[in-house]
Design goal:
Layout: H1 6-9, H2 16-24, H3 34-58, H4 61-64, H5 69-78, H6 95-133
Domain Transcription factor CBF/NF-Y/archaeal histone: 13-74
Biased composition (Acidic residues): 111-128
Subcellular location: Nucleus
């Protein structure tokens, strides 16, 4: 395998030093071959290009002649191939909607906790009734 020369580094746009740092952050990786580093960088670029192209074609990008975050998040949510990105590219929501969601969850959680406490009290009462009856 040929070693990367200065000219081959130009075949990738992503900074190889950053990719090396990311790869080394994995505890299973002890050393990184230059060829593996180059191929990882190239594969990453091709993946990002494919994601962007797919999102542009299947989103509203054509209408606006631009690729937007919402196009990317929609692709991550709707396309099975990209669903693993759904947590990384969540749909944007307004802060006011998020606060309302939190309040609703809190209310539902309190109701759920009250229900659990009621169930526990009923179980204790049943246990006491059984002990008294025997």
């Amino acid at each position: 395998a040929a070693r990367l020369s200065g000219g081959e580094n130009r075949l990738v746009s992503l900074p190889l030093s950053r990719i090396r740092v990311i790869m080394k952050s994995s505890p299973e990786v002890s050393s990184i071959n230059q060829d593996a580093l180059f191929l990882t960088a190239k594969a990453t670029e091709l993946f990002v290009q494919y994601l962007a192209t797919y999102s542009y074609k299947h989103g509203r990008g054509k209408e606006k002649n631009a690729l937007t975050y919402s196009d990317l998040s929609h692709t991550a949510e709707e396309c099975e191939t990209f669903q693993f990105l759904a947590d990384i590219l969540p749909k944007k929501i307004l802060a006011s909607k998020y606060l309302k969601m939190l309040e609703k969850e809190k209310r539902d959680g309190e109701v759920g906790e009250d229900d659990e406490e009621d169930e526990e009290e009923e179980e204790e009462d049943e246990a006491v009734d059984k002990d008294v009856g025997s």
